[in-house]
Amino acid sequence: MDYRKLRYFSVVAREGSLHKATEQLHLSQPALTRAIQDLEADVDAKLFIRHARGVTLTDEGSVLLEHAQDLLVQAERARAAVISAGTNPRGVVSIGLPPSLSIALMVPVVTQLASDFPLVQLNMHERMMPDLLEMLSNERIDAAIVGNPPQSDSFDFRFLFTEEVFLVGPASAALVGNFPIAALKEYPLIFPGSGIRAFSWVEEKMRSLKLSLTAKFRVESPSLAIALVRSGQGFALLPRSALHTPALDGAFSMAAVEGLGLDRYLAINSERIMNKAVTSVVNLIAQQAIKLSLGQSDALQVSSQ
To answer: What would the mean pLDDT of 231-250 be, rounded to a whole number?
Structure first.
């Protein structure tokens, strides 16, 4: 069974929409449709029921999804095992990533790297996406983890997982459960990200939904956003990984924003060939990302409610 088609199938199943899946996978809809049809032919079963709002899994599709998730994890492990079976990868690898994701994703990766590939030295650069893509373009880093990236022929984007985005406010706001995205316009907001782009990924998402929001502050550091909330300066919009911090305590409340997600991608310079050391690190990142997306890791648990 084709690993690539299983991965496409899993993304469609999670998103419940071919259109949303094409955006994440950076595929055309005809190409994705053909891949799903090929997979349905392979298993001799209809996997999705199509309707006006998207797609839902059939009973057969639900069974396949359960097995596909295990197969995808095993495939990533097998890839890493094959790499390690040959000449031991060695050398320096530089990875760029946003500050919010560094602890949740990279601590397990570094632990595994030290065990499996002790001759690889890993350098990590915490930056916002515009800076990371510039560093990647200039070959100052080997790969980058970015969120909701713009379309570009200069990079190959590999979808990792989607993070929920939370509205974080003072405890007195009593934020719980899910928060309607349209209601954000009533709050003084602290947006994540600044860099060289005119709008943050939050603002661009709002523009695509024809919703208008005003940023009171734009900050690059999740810790600064949380500190501003603590001082009564506004409400922060933060991905789940940014909430993995001791700074959150009983002084805060939070709620997941409905319809607002941060899609994480691994970005590689499309003109650069990865060596064994880079490939080893990239595969370990992919393995950990799958665990996060399947809820098999506690690294993205919210610290406070």
So the answer is: 82
